[in-house]
Amino acid sequence: MAPVRAALVTPLSGPMGGFGRAGAAALALWADRFSGPDQVRLTVVDAHPDARGALHRAEGTRPDLLFGPYGSGPAARAAAAASRLVWNHGGAQVPPRRNVINVLAPARTYFTGAVQLLHHHLAGGFSAGVLHSDTGFGRGVGGGALAEAQRLGIETRRAVLPESTPEADVLLVVASPAQEVRIAETLDFRGRKAVGFVAAGVREVLSGLGERREGLLGPAQWLAEAAPIPDEGPSAEEFLAAFRERTGQEPAYPAVQAFAAGLLALRCLRAAGASRDAAVLEAARRLDCTTLFGRFRIDTRGQQVGHRVLTVQWRGGRRVVVWPPESAGARWQPLPVA
User: Fold this and answer.
1) Start and end of every Leucine-binding protein domain (predicted)?
2) CA dihedral for 99, 104, 108, 109, sign (positive or negative)
3) What's the sign of the alpha-carbon dihedral 266, 271, 276, 277?
4) What residue spans of the chain are helical by DSSP H?
5) Closest CA to 241 of 42, 16, 33, 75
6) Structural domain boundaries of the chain?
7) How far is the C-alpha of 207 from the C-alpha of 218, rounded, in Å?
């Protein structure tokens, strides 16, 4: 059997290099230890500072499977430049394209769970403010939160950075990690029933806040404690142990996303029986399965409709899932401030 040629384009340097390298390490782990009887040869190309150029270099290796980069900006640029089918595991705000398969839940759903959670618990009603950056990701996440709030009959207020923070009972913030840190450090939480940041969904970004992080809400594509029992690939426990053994580190969330993309792409390649992109895409459209990352099912546009974003809250220095109800490990609590 001929080896499977795989190529990953992702930032290995620059501001996104840390998360990009985590994804690359996880995909290498998949190729070396979790590809079953197939021999996978993985090529990794640095997407910084030119995602389009890196994508073309990767296509030049004539891969059977092509994986896009971490980060919505690089992922969108790479997808637009690609002539091949791209497995997108790192960009939640990538416009639908016929040559892209999205493993992630879309950015517009990042805060819909938080809105549903608060609508469920705050029976007396509340106003929701959304502060977002003027980027594709910011508009996607912010617009999704506003649309869900309006659907539920919640009064909404919107501000686009650098505008001032909107006055509202609940505030949801979508910006770059550095911007969110600055806002979180100076924001007056008093009088707010809840505050959410995209960065609160991950361990690393808001760690410098200390106790100010307590009670904050955030979206998480994955949390080990809430990982499902997979019918494709290893369990979360097996993956975590293998990743720690290989790297000596805990996997950042992009690592899990990249690893799942490898499992899914190889399954579709096997089902297709050939490395023709059209056949692999058709196999992906038929696939409905569960990896350690969650459910995978795409619509006819390649958009992910099976995977669901978790809403987490910081409690006692750790993230706990508070929504959706079937995944929740704890009940939501109001902010611990006057």
Assistant:
1) 3-317
2) positive
3) negative
4) 17-33, 51-59, 72-81, 112-121, 136-151, 177-186, 236-247, 253-272, 277-286
5) 33
6) 5-105+227-297, 108-220+310-327
7) 13
Q: How confident is the model at residue 187 (pLDDT cuts 50, 70, 90)?
A: very high
User: For residues 84 and 66, is the Cβ–Cβ distance under 8 A?
Assistant: yes
Give the list of residues 6+ apart from residue 157 with CB closer than 8 angstroms, or none: 127, 128, 129, 130, 166, 167, 168
Q: What is the pLDDT of residues 251-299, one digit of tens each?
A: 989 999 999 999 999 999 999 998 899 999 999 999 999 999 999 999 9
**Other CB atoms closer than 10 Å to residue 81's CB: what's the count?**
17
Architecture of domain 108-220+310-327: 3-Layer(aba) Sandwich (3.40)
5-105+227-297 and 108-220+310-327 have identical folds: yes
Task: Pick the closest to residue 198 from 241, 281, 139, 120 (CA basis).
Answer: 139
Coil, strand, or helix at residue 32? helix
pTM for the model: 0.93
What does the pLDDT look like over 112-133, one tens digit per residue? 999 999 999 997 789 999 999 9
Does the structural domain 5-105+227-297 have CATH classification 3.40.30.10?
A: no
